[in-house]
Amino acid sequence: MRRRPLFWQIFPVSLLISLCTVLAVSWFATTTFKTFYYDQMVVDIEARALLLEQKILDLVLDSPDALQDFCRQAGRRAHTRITVVGPYGAVLADSNEDPQRMEKHGKRPEITKAYSGQTGSSLRFSTTLHRDMLYVAIPLRLSSADHADKTGALRLSVPATALNTVLGTIRNRVVLASLLTILLAAVFSRQLALRISRPLEEIKRGAEQLSSGEKIRLVNIHEHGLSLEMSGLIISLNRMAEQLMERILLTRRQHNELEAVFSSMTEAVVAVDAEECVIRLNRAAGLLFRIDPQIGKDKPVQGMLRNPELMEMIRGTLRNNNCAAAEVELFDGQQRTILEVRVVPLQDNEQQPIGALMVMDDVTRINRLENVRREFVANVSHELKTPITVIKGYVETLLDGGVAAHEDGNKFLQIVLRQAGRLDAIIDDLLSLSRIENTANSHKTSLDLALKELYPTLHAALQTCKLKADEQQIRLDLQCPPDLKAIHNPALLEEAVINLLNNAVTYSPSGSSVFVRAESRQESGKKQWVEIAVEDKGCGIRKEHLDRIFERFYRCDKARSRENGGTGLGLAIVKHIAQSQRGTVEVESHFGRGSTFTLNLPG
Ligand code: ADP
């Protein structure tokens, strides 16, 4: 059904009511006035007739001619037609016409009434005078010999023009007044309709603005001269709107807080309903499963997870309404991710199950670190255990007194001393590593990084290794511009270069050369780097070891390393020093032809 605005429901109805009232009042007023005026005229004419009555009676008895003359003169003076009618309708005299030629008037309504002894009146068109006339007749008691006990009639008539004119004027005025009243009624009806509909319109607009969050009050109650009921309604609605707005704001704030917490969680969270469709998922979950959190909503969770183990956990929780926890491995064809997964039932306010909530923590890195730690402890234990076992064995032999010859005892003690030195070297390297790591992790400027000349540092490193190199008849060659600068900590850089030089000397044949070259390298449009390369022409490293030689305790040839007093920690220390100086280290090696280790430092 088509609905009309309230204004168009009120305005036409109230206008129609006003219109009907005005028309009824106009009709009633016109009719009443017409009757009143007519009666007044009848009374007036009747009075005139009564004044003439006696004179007429006398003349009727005396002489018909005198009667006719009197009627003619009196009628002319009074502008009234005077007709005297006999008992049988014959006209005895008439002020305007010759009574001989006039037809009988006994059937005229006013005459009939007069015959019955009452005053009769009639308003009608006169065929004699050809216009509207008002006739008033009174009874004439004729008591002559001829007309004994007979009743005639004295009729006076005046043109109805005056009556019609007055009535016409009155009608015009009433019509004018009615039109004015209708106009006013229309204006007032409109005002009334607007007064009722406008506040409701305002309330509607206010409610719309309220729902869109633009406003917190519906209508200003001081406007429009509102009725008591309307202002009461508005006060109640305003109060309700304010409370509603407070609740909306509170809910919105809580929602935002929850949203912020939810989306900034590092754990991936997925909430699913009883039909296994996603209710919500956070950013971490979106990243993990490579899906937009908004797009993922309301979609089946199976298509998103694509993992039977995770699906089974969710289904178990939905089925049994219990919690589940497990470590699940994801493999997307490129990388492996280990997740610590917990699934709990999702409940509504009445503690009714409505779905499941799955929280996934990426523990890949922690697992890897844990493995590294475990491996490291095993390696350290193994590295320490070997010399300790040797030392213990020889010391026990010495204590048992099983060594007779003095030289043997000396030899044993030499071995014990060498193994103790080895232990010392391992512990020194471990301490060194731990110190560098701690310094790098503390992010302090205590590392004392500064842009300084490299030459003194490299020269000092060469000097340290020179003795060992000379012993093996290996030549050390330094190529470094004296003004070349790099951001570095001299003590740490010296330690790194000494480690690289020691390895180069260790793994080079005697008579060969080891080169240390430092040069600046400008990357196009990027920052400047300084490369420090330590190059030897030694045994080189097989390709398969290159990826791992910077790991702690990794050796390509364990026996040879031990024989040379290596700890397997030298390159790990170099790597950590490079990182602590915001640089890198890389290796290039050809088995049997030599190796080049390059330190890159910011210039
Ligand atoms: P190590 O104390 O055994 O030298 P490092 O960490 O310094 O331990 O080196 C790891 C391994 O890398 C060594 O055991 C060795 O096999 C290999 N290596 C390092 N530097 C060189 C080099 N210049 N030439 C050949 N092999 C090298």
Automatic annotation (TrEMBL):
SMART domains: HATPase_c (SM00387), HisKA (SM00388). The keyword Transmembrane applies. Its main location: membrane. It is an enzyme of class 2 (transferase). One of its GO terms (molecular function) is ATP binding. Residues 194-249 form the HAMP domain. PROSITE patterns: HAMP, HIS_KIN. One of its GO terms (cellular component) is plasma membrane. InterPro entries: BphY/WalK/GraS-like, HAMP_dom, HATPase_C_sf, HATPase_dom, His_kinase_dom, HisK_dim/P_dom, HisK_dim/P_sf, PAS-like_dom_sf. GO terms for biological process: cellular response to phosphate starvation. It catalyses: ATP + protein L-histidine = ADP + protein N-phospho-L-histidine. It is found in: Cell membrane. Its EC number is 2.7.13.3. Residues 379-603 form the Histidine kinase domain. The chain crosses the membrane at residues 6-29. Keywords: ATP-binding, Cell membrane, Kinase, Membrane, Nucleotide-binding, Phosphoprotein, Transferase, Transmembrane, Transmembrane helix, Two-component regulatory system. Signal peptide: none annotated. This is histidine kinase. It comes from Candidatus Electrothrix marina.
